[in-house]
């Protein structure tokens, strides 16, 4: 049954924008054969580090009907999180990735998605949907491309012409069919390789391929093991996450706009963290300071590991400069 009922592209878009989403696109729920093939090649190289969940549920990533059997369309939504705050270069402090300056985006996006789906169901009770914010076996980036929101940069983030790559993505799989679907934009990176050249750990092994085992973001957030010693001294003071590849991107220089979402503004001075403070912090303090922040993800143990790693790297840099470690 074709569900081109009461919910048109225009109405869904209007509702999404009213809830604060910045971009919305629609795609047909086709199989993502090429994307899953690329994912399999990436997994074969073990570039997923310890993210073993990436190896599971490939059939769901390939075909959203494995998640919602009546799926006909996928709606891709983006929320701009850019704040025009400069990163801290204070001595004795570590830098935090811009995405973690404020409240954890999952809470903000889950809330908006829930409201959107409720409103759409009120208009048409036949509307059925499953939604995700990078927590399930759904290829958010692939759907953002298919729905025409943006293209994949060589650093593997999605770049939009409206906000650059400073966006969070969320995805709704639905039984609804729409009359208009987005067009794939194409690739606007051209001959640029700034992100590849700027990465201090050479984590972008080739265009569009990131080796998580070397990526500062992965190593300081998701990784639960020790950070490899050979990377010591190359983290450029990033304590939680890293934005180097996005900061150097000319599209971000051109398209960045300040977010309208107050939840993403800096909270509890979390754009920088004093390394001594972390080393002395106990779990109670950690939970109080980072409540509702993405920094909770690393846990206190991970944050202390990162702080020690930065200190060791800083020491090594100083010793190298004075020649004392020769
Ligand atoms: S820095 Fe250059 S190559 Fe990298 S994503 Fe931006 S435009 Fe593409």
Could you characterize the architecture of this molecule?
The protein is 34% helix and 14% strand. It has 326 residues and is an alpha+beta fold. The protein folds into 2 domains: 9-85 and 98-174, no CATH class; 194-258 and 265-322, no CATH class. The strands form 4 sheets. Strands 1-2-7-4 form a 4-stranded antiparallel beta sheet, with helices on both faces. It is globular. 39% of the residues are buried. Iron/sulfur cluster (SF4) binds at residues 153-155, 189, 192-195, 248-251.
How are the SSEs placed, and which strands pair?
Blueprint: H1 9-18, E1 23-28, H2 33-44, H3 58-62, E2 73-80, E3 93-96, H4 105-123, E4 129-132, H5 140-146, E5 151-152, E6 158-159, E7 167-174, H6 194-198, E8 204-206, E9 209-210, H7 216-220, E10 238-240, H8 244-247, H9 250-255, E11 272-274, H10 275-280, H11 283-290, H12 299-322
Parallel strand pairs: 3-10
Antiparallel strand pairs: 1-2, 2-7, 3-11, 4-7, 5-6, 8-9
The protein binds iron/sulfur cluster (SF4).
Distance between the termini: 74 Å
Largest sheet: 4 strands, antiparallel
- Tally of alpha and pi helices: 12
Into how many domains do the coordinates divide? 2
Order of helices and strands: HEHHEEHEHEEEHEEHEHHEHHH
> Which sequence of strands runs across the widest sheet?
1-2-7-4
**Which percent bin holds the helix content?**
25-40%
Which ions and ligands are bound to the chains? iron/sulfur cluster
| Proportion of beta-strand residues | 5-15%
Mean pLDDT: 94
Regions with little confidence, pLDDT below 50 for 5+ residues: 318-326
Give the overall form. globular
Class by SSE composition: alpha+beta
> Can you count the beta strands?
11
